[in-house]
Design brief:
It is a single chain. This protein is mostly helical and 263 residues long. It has one domain. 87% of the residues lie in helices and 0% in strands. The longest helix has 39 residues. The N and C termini lie far apart (58 Å).
């Protein structure tokens, strides 16, 4: 009896976790649908979207730029050292350009934005939720999704691709600085990047930035609006927002790349 009771307890707990996860997915999907519907409603929050764009994209430029620049320098340094043993050092520009445009640029940008902006959105909306400010917005007849979620999602879908373009450029420039110190001319380096990185690669990078921006903003808003438990819940929601958004970015990166290769 004790073994059977323990087994029932384990299965019952597992079932509760599965139902809880399914409920979370359902609530998240509902938020996505409501945010899409909010786009078609009158009184589009254009001014608030510009405010969020400044907060999300403009203020993240420095941290993204520093990350991309030094990552490009490190990548070029390791590439020059590795390829020199095979006499393939001139291919450094091609390797750095492809690596940054296709993967490192959009992914590093998304992770930086997730850590800086995703956590902030979850904390901000979570504080509004636990202090009943979201309920006050609803009581005044306004839609919290249109007022709070839509501007952040739109700003993220526009801002993260632009930051990705900046990251790609600075990553390639950082690699050029190291390549120049290793005897590779700047003109040859840039020409090798242009010859190898096609237009479709840049389009893929921008598309990834748009999807990553949508994921980060939507996850941050969902975690904030579903916060419970006071100030402790706000901290928990902030941590979950960063973790879930970062993992979702890495997982979606694989599927986007796979889908793009099939086109």
């Amino acid at each position: 009896m004790s073994v059977a009771s323990s087994l029932r307890g384990v299965l019952g707990g597992l079932g509760d976790r599965v139902f809880a996860v399914l409920e979370e997915f359902g609530q998240f999907g509902l938020l996505v649908v409501r945010s899409v519907v909010a786009v078609t409603r009158p009184r589009f929050p254009l001014r608030e979207t510009f405010v969020q764009f400044e907060s999300i994209a403009v203020r993240s430029t420095i941290i993204v730029a520093i990350t991309a620049l030094f990552t490009g320098m490190v990548l070029a340094l390791q590439t020059v050292f590795s390829l020199s043993r095979f006499g393939a050092k001139p291919f450094t520009g091609s390797f750095v350009g492809l690596s940054f445009v296709l993967e490192l640029g959009p992914v590093l940008t998304a992770l930086m934005v997730s850590g800086r902006v995703g956590a902030g959105i979850a904390a901000e909306l979570g504080s509004m939720k636990v202090t009943e400010q979201v309920d006050a917005i609803r009581a005044m007849g306004a839609d919290p999704v249109q007022k709070l979620v839509l501007p952040r999602v739109m700003a993220g879908c526009i801002g993260v691709p632009l930051l990705t373009v900046i990251a790609n450029a600075l990553g390639i420039i950082g690699g050029m600085l190291i390549a120049a110190q290793s005897g590779i001319g700047a003109n040859f380096y840039l020409q090798s990047v242009v010859n190898v990185v096609e237009v479709s690669s840049y389009l893929q990078s921008i598309a990834k930035g748009c999807v990553f921006g949508w994921i980060i903003m939507t996850v941050g808003c969902y975690m904030g609006l579903s916060t419970t438990g006071g100030t402790v819940g706000v901290g928990r929601a902030t941590t979950r927002a960063v973790v879930v958004a970062s993992i979702s970015v890495l997982v979606s990166d694989f599927f986007i790349t796979k889908l793009w290769m099939m086109l």
